[in-house]
Design a protein that fits this description.
This protein has about 240 residues and is of the alpha+beta class. It has 9 helices and 5 strands, in the order ααααβββαααβαβα. Helix 5 runs antiparallel to helix 6 and helix 5 crosses helix 8.
């Protein structure tokens, strides 16, 4: 009854043909089983072995089994008797596969988290540098006009807004981990996005005596997520 429960075949079918069991072994696992059996047969001292492999039951379903083979030999090492135990381990294998899948998912999520933190950490330095650059300029240059001071304060404001968006992205890390990145596209001025990036990065550029000029016309419109596209241009300009 147990044989039929695991394989779907009656014991009489196995007893009528000595190699019947090999015929129901899953093709990809057959060579492993044969090598194990051959090793026992050839050896003069080996008395037991264990193996796990798949069989195809009578209904065509794949069943994982664990087999423990024991042999009794005479003083010359010749096999006199073979016996063993076959167990259905399908549930255990399924649990192992689920565990491996969960482990791999956790590894990927952790890698995504580390990568995201690395990117945000890099991006945070840019607005910080810009803020510090203009702050130093405002505190150290006494010859600045009111117009220049107002302009630099505006740049600090843009850099602060840019930094706040990055911090919000970092605090919203759980959405990244679950793949639910917020994407809200809209029709928006390309010039405005690029100019905001230039304003946010002007502090860093100013410290290096670099002037950034946008030649994008006002009429150029794009359909995109403002926040995400701003990060793109922040990276492009700051890296350049």
């Amino acid at each position: 009854n147990s044989v039929e429960k695991v394989t779907g075949y009656a014991q009489s079918e196995f007893l009528s043909e000595s190699t019947f069991f090999l015929k129901i072994v899953y093709p990809d696992d057959l060579h492993i089983l044969k090598n194990k059996l051959k090793s026992i047969m050839v050896s003069k001292i080996q008395v037991s072995d264990e193996m796990e492999f798949r069989i195809i039951n009578k209904r065509g379903n794949i069943v994982w089994v664990r087999t423990k083979i024991n042999v009794i030999r005479n003083i010359d090492g010749i096999i006199l008797k073979i016996y063993g135990l076959v167990s259905d381990i399908s549930l255990r294998k399924k649990a192992e596969e689920e565990l491996n899948r969960s482990t791999n998912n956790l590894i990927k999520l952790n890698e995504t988290k580390d990568k995201f933190i690395s990117i945000v950490s890099h991006d945070l330095r840019t607005p910080f540098n810009s803020i510090l650059g203009f702050t130093d300029l405002l505190t150290e240059d006494e010859n600045l006009t009111e117009i220049e001071k107002k302009k630099y304060v505006g740049f600090i404001k843009e850099s602060s807004k840019s930094m706040l968006e990055l911090v919000n992205s970092l605090l919203d890390l759980t959405r990244i981990q679950t793949g639910r990145i917020k994407f809200e596209p809209e029709k928006i001025s390309a010039r405005m996005i690029i100019q905001n990036s230039i304003n946010a990065l002007s502090g860093s550029a100013f410290q290096k005596n670099i002037e950034i000029i946008s030649e994008v016309e006002r009429k150029v419109m794009i359909f995109t997520d403002n926040s995400l596209m701003t990060q793109v241009f922040n990276n492009l300009i700051s890296n350049a």
